[in-house]
Structure formats: C-alpha cells, structure tokens
Amino acid sequence: MQKITISLLAFCAGFSIMSFELLGGRMLAPYFGSSVYVWGSIITVFMLALSIGYLSGGKYSLYRPNLKKFAIIFLVASIALLPAIYFSEYFFEFVFQRVEDPRYGSLLASCLVFLVPSMIMGMIAPYSVRLLTVSADSSGSTAGFLYFISTLGSAIGTIMTSFYLVLWLEVDQILWFILSILATCSGLAFASFYFTNSKILATNENTLSTEN
Amino acid sequence: MRYSIILMAISFMFSLSANAKEIHKERSIYRNVVITEKDQIRCMRFETRRKKVSNQTCIDLSDKQKLVFEYTQGILAGLAIQTKPSRVLILGLGGGTLSNTINQISPTTEIIAVDIDPVVVKLAKRYFDYKENEQVKTVIQDGRVYVKRALLKQEKFDWIILDAFNGDYIPEHMMTKEFLSEVKGLLTNEGIISANTFSSSELYHYESVTYQNVFNQLKIFKAPTKGNRVIFACNCDKLTFPEKIPLTLENHFSIYSMKYLNIVSQINDKVDWNLDSPMLTDQYSPANLLK
C-alpha cells in the first residue's frame, strides 16, 4: 500500500516539475521573448534547482525519514508556487527595467521565480527512494523504479501541458492546478502517515495484549 | 470564379516552390535559412521537410521593383493614410522588401526594422538588396522585447507594420491583447498599424477578436489569390482610406505596379469572424495549437 502511495506521489512530483517548466517559457516570453536563450535560461535554472533539490532531499532523508516529513515537502512545494502566481509579473518587470541583455535578464528572472519551487520539488525524488528502500541490496532497483515513475510523470506533464492544458486553461489556472496536485499529494502523504502509524500502534497493542 | 482563384493560388504556390533551385543555405540559431531560385524568382524560406513550403519573401530578378506578394501591396496602402510618416517600425524583416520600398517612396522617413534572426538580416542584405542607411536601421531582437523597451523610452511611431507571423511557428507572445496594447502605446495620435495576419483556421476568429478589442475599428485587406489578410487599425476614432491620393504617391505606386484604387476596393470593414471567440492574452495564447 505504502509503495503505491509513494509511487503515485513521485509520479505527481515529476508531472508538476515539467508542467511548471513549460509554463516558464510562456510566463517569460512577454518580457524577454521566446528566443533560444530564454529557453536556455529556464532549463538551466530548473536543472540547477533540481540538482540542489536532489542533494538537499538526500541529506534531509538521513534524519528519521517518515511520510509526515515527506508530506511537509509537498506542502512547502505547493506554497512555494504562490509567488509565481501572484508576484511573477512584478519580478519580471523589475528585472526587465534593470537588465537590458535578454540573456541575463531571463536568467535572473528565472532564478527569482522558478528556482525555489523547483528546488523543493527536486527534494521529493531522493526522499521517496529512502522511504521505499528496505535493504542495501534492493536500493538500486528501488531507485530505478522511482526514476522510472517520476520521469514518466514528467513526460506526461510535458505532453499534457503543451498539447492540451494551454489550450484549455490560462497560465495562472494551470499553476493553481499544479499547486492543488502538490497540496493533494501532501494530504495523501499525511493520511498515509497516520494510517500506517495507527496500524503499527494497533499491532503493538495486539502484541502486548497477547504477551499478557 | 472561385475555382479559378483556387487554381491560380495553387499554380502560384507551385511556381514559387516546386523544384526551385537552392542557391544558398545558412544555419542560424533558430533554423536553416534557405535561398531558392526558379524562373527569375528568388525566395527566402525556412527549411522544412514538409511538402507545403511557405516563403518568407520573394523578389523577381527580372523586375526587382515588382512586389511578388500581394499582401505587401496591401500593407503599403497604409501610405495613403500616413503619406509622410516620420518614423516607421517594422517587426519582422524578411527580405527587407517593405523597408526598401518605403525608403524609396519616402526617403526622409526613419525606418526601424526589427528581426530576431541575424542570419535573416544578413541574407536579406546579400540576396534581396536590403539597404541600411542613415534613415534605415536594423535591430536584432525579439519584437515583443523591442516594443516593451521602446515604450520605456517613450518612443513614438506613425506607422507600425507587424509582419512576423508567416513562418511555421507563430510567436505566440506577439499575438496577444497585451502585446497589441503595447504596440498601440507606441503610436502617435493618428498613427496606424498594418498587420499581416492569418486568414484561415480557428486562429482567424481568435486573432480578429483580439485586434478588435484593442483597436475597435478594423479595416481588412484580403489578398485576392493568396490566403493573407492585412489588418489596418489606428490610434484614432475612425480610420478611412482616402478616395484620392497625392499624384506623387500614385506615381510611386505605379513604379511597383500597384494600383491604389484596386487595392482600396479590396479593403472593407466587414466583420466575418465569430465574435464569441476567446481573446488571445498573455495568459491564454495557444496560437500554434489553433492554426
């Protein structure tokens, strides 16, 4: 059960990251154009954010990992999207007025708006590996499976956003959609945490009563 | 009648694309730009594997003054309203035909041509006689970014020509209500725009509604044989094309085999799009999915 939940959450994280990245191009275009270097900036910032996220997610998993902490990562990731919805235009305008070169302008603007949320989303993958790993022997297989699931999520996030979501919804509405996916994931992880805990508690009580 | 027009359009397309000899190909950061030649017609196009080739610009080598594309003639009708524009902005250079023609007809006009692709500018100079001089300047920049920066500098133009939309990929951020409002903000009082736009697919309705929302009154020129549509609009209450134009302008037009009365007879303000179509905005602009 826990395996299914964590896989689903990893899938949703992969979906959200790529959907957000694709929207990045749309959000920046009015200020910095859609030249190849604008996409270069976006991809650079996302890759940078993910690399920091992987590192810190891995470190965070060293301290008594559990589903509750996993839920908190999702919650923080969803809250971190709020500035992108409410303040991105101010950030872009601010940078646009100060940096003439659209290459560095788009790079700086991407850092301001996309770095933090995507970094937190990047923490999810290594943390989910830790939660699912039961032994050192199977750790490679667990990691491979989770890469598979989250990258599949990314592929579907990319195609859904670029083929359909931009046709059905406005940019902000899609951002709200991603935010609610992440928030729902957080809720699911919390629920799963308390459900597993109560089960463990019940088992412990049972063991205690039989011992008595 | 309708069939003969379609046949003419098809034969025209074939004459420009089928078996045209590639005389030069150059790679840019965006795509491969190809120069082709056939029957004295030289064209610039972006390389594609598709059967349907869309040329960015063409010139007739036997008569360089001839405007090969009908929509170019349509756009130039703007000179009937702005007879002596002091500043003109062209977004989307292509081969530089519009810039060259305006410069020849009105040599004192300052022209700024903006194109995103440096290779297009280079090949326009080499193969299409695009001329830069004291009055004609080229800026290599994304059109939207240029417009935003020009607004910051409080620049003004009497005539803005939007011609960045005839490729396979539509720059979606240059189709939106916000973009058109920025363009409007660059116009002088009584300043006008001429925009080469789409005349087929769902996009026709979305785009028309967006232009109408920003500029209220639109005048439409539809190229008789090809699918282009030119939208005219102004930063004023009412846009009217004069029945008569100055003799000097008429003479200039005749050098380019343009007959003003013919063109103006193809301009109307008929609303033939679906008014309930959504507007294109920075938040919602799936132009490439709609075309």
UniProtKB/TrEMBL annotation, chain A:
The keyword Calcium does not apply. It comes from the Bacteria. The keyword Transmembrane helix applies. InterPro entries: MFS_trans_sf (IPR036259). Keywords: Membrane, Transferase, Transmembrane, Transmembrane helix. GO terms for molecular function: transferase activity. The chain crosses the membrane at residues 35-55, 67-87, 107-133, 145-168, 174-195. This is Glycosyl transferase. It comes from Catenovulum maritimum.
TrEMBL record, chain B:
One of its GO terms (biological process) is polyamine biosynthetic process. One of its GO terms (molecular function) is transferase activity. It comes from the Bacteria. The active site is at D163. InterPro entries: PABS, SAM-dependent_MTases_sf. Residues 1-20 form the signal peptide. Keywords: Polyamine biosynthesis, Signal, Transferase. Residues 84-259 form the PABS domain. Pfam families: Spermine_synth (PF01564). NCBIfam families: MFS_SpdSyn. Belongs to the spermidine/spermine synthase family. This is PABS domain-containing protein. It comes from Catenovulum maritimum.
